[in-house]
Amino acid sequence: MILTGPEIISASRDGRLRIDPFSSSQVNPNSYNVRLGPTLLTYTDDVLDSHRPNPTHRIQGGEDGHILQPGELYLGHTMEEVGSDRFVPLLFGRSSVGRLGLFVEITAPIGDIGFHGQWTLMLTPTRPVRVYAGMKIGQIMFFVSKGAIELYSGKYQASAGPQPSAYWRDLAPSAVTP
């Protein structure tokens, strides 16, 4: 079961889900629009290593926006902190953004129950596209869960700004490359 727009409003008011900042103008019939935050990250190494942290370059969005280039992965973030201890959130790109040739989420649209924070966006353009901080970039839907709930307490909890991969944190210490 998916929450409708009026139920998203009700759940945000009574604390069953948290969206901060919240604006009723961003509520859709069955989702909530999230906006692109001001910070982007790109990886600086040509080859990314899943067994160690990878260096990144920080880009601060200005008034003129930033042009994303094909062949580059940009890590962005939502302006809003979104989470719930009761509902399963799923994030998707907005169709208007997809029609500009911009993928907003590569492989991880599902959020865990109990995660609260800004969502990292994996932005991949098919052609050069200018993006702006504050633009509506994606939408989050909320699904009712069934069964016992175990709250998320993982490595990305309380994220603020874009988060590079921390896959290496899940590895046994002997597998991590210095």
TrEMBL record:
InterPro entries: dCTP_deaminase (IPR011962), dUTPase-like_sf (IPR036157), dUTPase_trimeric (IPR033704). GO terms for molecular function: dCTP deaminase activity. The keyword Transcription regulation does not apply. Keywords: Hydrolase, Nucleotide metabolism. Its EC number is 3.5.4.13. Pfam families: DCD. It is an enzyme of class 3 (hydrolase). This is dCTP deaminase. It comes from Streptomyces katrae.
